[in-house]
Recover the amino acids of this structure.
């Protein structure tokens, strides 16, 4: 997964170079996208619906493959050819926060938060302790035994943030993290995301339609006509 001999000397955590993706022979959704994100930086990407924001996020996550270009994390080039290695790389290095929360209904809140650690083979005691610490950090202390269906939308998203950070990822990818929340809940979730990410030292790459959410980022880029610009 992490190709030897291909490491960069740059201080950037994430590097995207010349990324191209087309779903049509006559138009490119991404047309040579370049992007750099530093460790600890929160970058927001905005743009019209259909501009390719989620596609860009999915390619960075290894969930979709580019037609051309490359993605590097910590100087190691993402290899899209090996699905098993790609899945393990995602589990180790990336955290995800989705608009629809994606908490598993058959697991309690603590088990949901600890899921990334379970997938990496961590022991039960370690998983439980880490989940309790993270839930407390997002204002959900004592929620470990609750079922996801008993939580409000804001509480579910805060639990999702805790889950995204369970394994101390290098990069958190957030796709419309406040899209299903009212203004007050969205503000609370953004506060929790910023604070939690600072604690683990991760970078955040977020796509959003919300000017309020984008304003929390250190840097905002607009995706239009297949390219990123300030």
């Amino acid at each position: 997964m992490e190709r030897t001999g291909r490491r960069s000397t740059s201080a950037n955590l994430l590097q995207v170079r010349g990324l191209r993706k087309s779903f049509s022979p006559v138009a490119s959704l991404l047309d040579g996208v370049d992007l750099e994100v530093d460790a600890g930086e929160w970058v927001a990407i905005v743009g019209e619906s259909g501009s390719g924001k989620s596609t860009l996020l999915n390619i960075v996550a290894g969930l979709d493959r580019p037609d051309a270009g490359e993605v590097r994390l910590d100087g190691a080039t993402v290899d899209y050819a090996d699905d098993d290695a790609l899945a393990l790389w995602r589990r180790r290095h990336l955290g995800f926060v989705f608009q629809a929360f994606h908490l598993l209904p058959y697991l309690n809140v603590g088990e949901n938060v600890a899921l990334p650690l379970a997938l990496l083979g961590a022991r039960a005691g370690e998983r439980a302790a880490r989940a309790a610490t993270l839930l407390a950090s997002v204002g959900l202390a004592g929620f470990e035994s609750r079922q996801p269906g008993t939580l409000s939308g804001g509480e579910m998203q805060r639990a999702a943030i805790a889950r995204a950070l369970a394994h101390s990822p290098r990069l958190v990818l957030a796709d419309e993290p406040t899209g299903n929340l009212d203004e007050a809940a969205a503000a609370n979730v953004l506060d929790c995301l910023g604070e939690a990410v600072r604690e683990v030292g991760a970078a955040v790459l977020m796509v959003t339609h919300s000017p309020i959410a984008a304003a929390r980022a250190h840097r905002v880029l607009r995706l239009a006509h297949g390219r990123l610009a300030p």
Q: What stands out?
A: The mean pLDDT is 90. The domain at 12-229 is CATH 3.40.50.300 (Rossmann fold).
